[in-house]
């Protein structure tokens, strides 16, 4: 009986152990996640049956090797590599204006514009460039962060190849002499303006002349007639000869503080009569005073560079009065004031411009004919005329009364004249010129100009008119 009880207890214990063991196994199966449940089978990955030890074949990716583009051609000048030479370029020309830091800008039209070309200080030093040089070369367009075009290579300087550029003289060191060769202005029988100027106030190569004019006296027409006479008698195309016996005369019109419509008129006239060889440097009256003065300074430097080459240059400046007024506003005040509120400091730059005219000994010449305004009602204008009255060696006075009577040219014969005129007329014609002066002095002021015009219309040329004076 006891053995049966013991057997039952053992069986119960063993069954309880089995139940606990099964529960623990079930617990483990629930808690532990199945391993590799998220991975694919070997068949799905390698395409072989499970359990196979063979590795799949390794397929190497095919890499295409693209050859590098050829290096852009390098522009080498004198063992120096010019940067950006592979960019599209364009041949440009302009007048050099050098800044204080040494670099410069090529200005196509003497004044600032969006077509200005930057030139580095190293190129300026290498070629010994000067303000006013006409530079030509290949330039590239401005980049995104740049303002101006960039000059890559200097090819021409004042229309000469760089290789042909030799040692240049300095304008300030050239020897100035009296004008001894006349610029003939007369062209046709009916062109009375130029015929009268040749007789009354002749212009020589290297002359420093003043055209003194009140308002509405025909000053602009007088300037255009002078331009036409010079362009026809001394064309800058190799057919005409200047005072130095070389090709033609280079014409320049410098307009300071002018009206825009008159600028257009002069530009078209110069382009027409000179076949595009002449130059016009202009500034309007609504521009800043510094811009007006800078245009005049750059034009003068351009003329000096041509004279250094031995050329004859004629500048017609309109006007000295407005140039001095612009300097009066552009320059810092000196603390002193003359009549009409004019600062004396403003006189020196204008006089420096006018005083640059001279005949160079055995070389070229720079002729400057400037206009000066009088009888404008401004005391400042009268002061400017008085300051410049003794600086020129030729004066041509216009009279408003004659212009109001429609007598053109309205030249005051008695007050107009040229210093050392015997050097221009020559010994043969000088006695007849003296006779003409004495004849005109015997006539009243109101009839003097009209009588001379009437006598000139009866002859074909001035030479014929002078010859006829012998019988008077």
TrEMBL record:
Residues 89-161 form the Rho RNA-BD domain. Residues 1-29 are annotated as: Disordered. Transmembrane segments: none annotated. SMART domains: AAA, CSP. ATP binds at residues 204-209, 216-221, 259. One of its GO terms (molecular function) is hydrolase activity. Residues 1-11 have a biased composition (Basic residues). Gene3D superfamilies: Nucleic acid-binding proteins, P-loop containing nucleotide triphosphate hydrolases. Its EC number is 3.6.4.-. One of its GO terms (biological process) is DNA-templated transcription termination. Pfam families: ATP-synt_ab, Rho_RNA_bind. Belongs to the Rho family. Facilitates transcription termination by a mechanism that involves Rho binding to the nascent RNA, activation of Rho's RNA-dependent ATPase activity, and release of the mRNA from the DNA template. HAMAP family: Rho (MF_01884). This is Transcription termination factor Rho. It comes from Candidatus Woesebacteria bacterium RIFCSPHIGHO2_01_FULL_38_26b. The gene is rho.
């Amino acid at each position: 009986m006891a053995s049966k009880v013991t057997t039952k207890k053992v069986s119960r214990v063993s069954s309880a152990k089995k139940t606990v063991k099964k529960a623990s196994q079930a617990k483990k199966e629930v808690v532990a996640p199945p391993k590799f449940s998220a991975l694919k089978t070997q068949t799905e990955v390698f395409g072989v049956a499970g359990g196979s030890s063979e590795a799949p074949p390794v397929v190497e990716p095919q890499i295409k090797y693209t050859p590098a583009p050829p290096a852009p051609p390098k522009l080498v000048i004198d063992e120096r590599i010019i940067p950006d030479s592979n960019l599209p370029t364009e041949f440009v020309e302009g007048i050099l204006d050098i800044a204080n830091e040494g670099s410069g800008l090529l200005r196509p039209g003497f004044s600032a514009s969006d077509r200005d070309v930057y030139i580095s200080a190293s190129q300026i030093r290498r070629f010994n460039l000067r303000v006013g040089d006409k530079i030509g070369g290949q330039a590239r367009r401005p980049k995104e962060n740049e303002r101006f075009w960039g000059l890559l290579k200097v090819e021409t300087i004042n229309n000469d190849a760089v290789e042909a550029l030799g040692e240049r003289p300095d304008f300030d060191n050239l020897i100035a002499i009296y004008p001894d060769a006349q610029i003939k202005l007369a062209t046709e029988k009916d062109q009375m303006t130029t015929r009268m100027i040749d007789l009354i106030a002749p212009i020589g190569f290297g002359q420093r002349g003043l055209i003194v004019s009140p308002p509405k006296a025909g000053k602009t027409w007088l300037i255009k007639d002078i331009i036409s006479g010079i362009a026809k008698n001394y064309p800058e195309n190799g057919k005409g000869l200047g005072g130095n016996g070389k090709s033609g005369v280079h014409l320049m019109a410098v307009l300071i503080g002018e009206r825009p419509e008159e600028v257009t008129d002069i530009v078209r006239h110069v382009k027409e009569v000179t076949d595009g060889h002449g130059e016009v440097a202009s500034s309007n009256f609504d521009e800043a005073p510094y811009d007006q003065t800078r245009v005049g300074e750059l034009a003068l430097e351009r003329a000096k560079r041509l004279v250094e080459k031995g050329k004859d240059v004629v500048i017609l400046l309109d006007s000295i009065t407005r140039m001095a007024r612009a300097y009066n506003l552009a320059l810092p005040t000196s603390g002193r004031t003359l009549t009409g509120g004019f600062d004396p400091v403003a006189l020196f730059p204008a006089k420096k411009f006018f005083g640059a005219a001279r005949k160079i000994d055995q070389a070229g010449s720079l002729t400057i004919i400037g206009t000066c305004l009088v009888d404008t009602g401004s005391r400042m204008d009268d002061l400017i005329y008085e300051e410049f009255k003794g600086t020129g060696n030729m004066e041509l006075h216009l009279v408003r009364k004659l212009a109001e009577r429609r007598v053109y040219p309205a030249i005051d014969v008695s007050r107009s004249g040229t210093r050392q005129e015997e050097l221009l007329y020559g010994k043969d014609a000088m006695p007849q010129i003296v006779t003409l002066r004495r004849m005109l002095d015997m006539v009243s002021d109101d009839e003097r100009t009209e009588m001379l015009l009437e006598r000139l219309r009866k002859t074909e040329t001035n030479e014929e008119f002078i010859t006829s004076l012998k019988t008077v």
